[in-house]
Amino acid sequence: MREPTFGTELLHRSMAGTDTDSSCLTHLSVIASRTAAFVEWPEWVPADLVAAFIESGIDRPWTHQAAAADLLYHRKHVALCTGTASGKSLAYQMPILSTLMKDPHSTALYLSPTKALGADQIRSLTSLLSGHREFTHLQPCAYDGDTDVEIRQWARAHSRWIFTNPDMLHIGILAGHARWRHFFRHLRYIVVDECHHYRGVFGSHTALVLRRLLRIARSAGADPTVIGTSATMAEPADALTRLIGEPAVGVVEDGSPRGERTVALWEPDFLPAVTGEHGAPVRRSAGAESARLLADFVVEGARTLCFLRSRRGVELTARQARHLLAQSAPELVDRVAAYRAGYLADDRRRLEQAISSGDLVGVATTNALELGVDISGLDAVIVGGYPGTVASFWQQAGRAGRQRTSGDSLVVLVARDDPLDTYLVHHPEALLSRPVEATVTDPTNPYILTPHLLCAAAELPLQDKEIEAWGAGEAVAALASDGMLKRRKAGWYVAPGVEPHGDIDIRGGIGGQVLIVDTTTSQLLGTVDTGRAPSTVHPGALHIHQGQSYVIDELDLSDGLALAHPEEPDWTTAARETTDITVTNVVDRRDCDALTVALVDVDVTHQVVGYLRTLLSGEVLDAVELDMPPQTLSTRAVMYTITPEALEEVGVTVGRFPGALHAAEHAAIGLLPLVASCDRWDIGGLSTNSHPDTALPTVFVYDGYLGGAGFADRGYAAFPTWIAATRDAVSSCRCESGCPSCVQSPKCGNGNHPLDKDGAIKVLTLIGRRYWDGA
Ligand SMILES: Nc1ncnc2c1ncn2[C@@H]1O[C@H](COP(=O)(O)OP(=O)(O)OP(=O)(O)O)[C@@H](O)[C@H]1O
Q1: CATH for 47-251?
Q2: Which parts of the sequence belong to the Helicase ATP-binding domain (predicted)?
């Protein structure tokens, strides 16, 4: 028998003497520890800098740090992909600080997807440099939405290492690059931290912002080298190459030490007396189960981070854990807290210190603490609900075991009542042995590319060879015929009066924005893009802002306003919408006799018809009807058709077509995130007995972004894997005739009716077989 590990012992102790059901544990595995591989400091690092590193506690670099640093120093773009807490910062600090010390003009730019992470990096850099007069001229400085106007001016004139994010780079730096001429002329390094974050629409926008950055730096006479870092990046060299549009070298051999990590997969049991939609059984929620584990671990003295998907989930889980502790160990109640986005930097720092010092033993958090935060001494991580990607799962898992002594840790994934989570806790290899997913980006999506072309032309005239390199010939021709771009001798210019930068929301919105306003205080709570407003901020919708709940009173799409008031109801809402699809173009197709699978361009017309109010226990409270205007989205879809004869042959009679296809569609939407790094809310679907464009039983799964964010393309490329996993998920679910863990969808426009679970298994089996037969 295997020796008990730190993790198994902790789990065992926590479960002993509680009513926790051990049958919830579906899998347990142990990832072995690893010892450090050190090398000497590269000879090009100045002695003063080596002394500063040693003083900060780093005696020698690990192998991967020196390898990546050396490549970067010698002007090769590097993708560094090594584990969490493997000291990726040192890998770029070495060459950047060395060059900045040797060449008094050179500059560097650091980009992170969040402001908080940039602030952490500056803090650790400042602490490294403090007390060394020879570094005072480096002046690292943040330049983001929180930076005061005077500091911005100062930073432009004096800072040699700017810390910013892609949003600010786009709107605040590239848009006014003339004011940054000195900085760009000497730009030697660009750090793109936490690269795996740049996926989907945000990734495509960032890829174009980076291309614009490189061309501006080059036109100013510089030739910067890029390092991209991540603990969880598939094919790192290719991923960085796609992101910056230039070849990069990968460094993946990890020389840092690692403790033993025990991973447990956990499926909460069905609740005995509760039923959901159409009488379906309901499982205990991932949040409630996570709170129970959090309280148990805290009682055992294990410092634990518990990740939840929503801010509200964070608040509720912390509250519930404290409530449980009040009964069993009241002295520990105040050692548990909630952490959510929206905290000020100082509060966040205090909280991180309280976790590091052990004053706080348990913290429930959103993914705000997932990225690169260096908190030491954590023993356990609870992942309350699969976070959507394997990459995120490992990022969250990697927050534990960061202490240098043993570094042993326990990670528990608690499944939500949803097909993907169900699948993963019963197929551990699909989570634990699968490489992290490739980041899906598509910078040639014309809806994303076109506005960036205007920005690029406004920054510097566009050259034909750049247009070719960006694959932008058609988009430029369209802009020219619309009179937005004009050709002159020096290249393409924007037409007078065109100011394109403000029209881009690089976090995903394409098109207009709806402002969400609290009518009791007139405070702006946030924005949502117009296309998504009817399904997210419809009247009656629950909206969460920084952990506070609001209920929407009114949505005015023409004025771009959603009005809300604060309220703390004990229910959540999910919009119900109907969908129509028209196929506008077949991009690729594969005919396998009775089955056709195709990648198609489509126009999707949505109409929100109501919403469902669900109690936090999972019980459905009621369904409310709504009449919202229809909206059309041009995007990409994966589509399959099956002949009626083939369906009947496998025992799905005509009367069962709608339920079988509908259930197969729901489950496939739930499982697409397995093959494309997306969230189930990024995609939608439609199934029909006979579609006007195909005259056959047809299922569509479409990308929820204008022009597509690459998710449907990925589903098409991985179609057989995706369908096989979907079939497995549905058939391994223990419910009788369909539940949220397999074929029910939280956003179904038809109230999850009709659904035929057995029919779906037959359809999915049939597709899998025909696809391979047609191979
Ligand atoms: N060569 C080294 N020897 C000892 N300690 C080191 C070494 N390099 C880095 N460290 C320490 O390891 C810790 C983690 O470093 P860092 O935060 O840079 O890791 P990371 O790889 O960026 O982590 P994540 O991916 O989780 O953000 C820091 O406390 C750092 O001081």
Answers
A1: 3.40.50.300
A2: 69-251
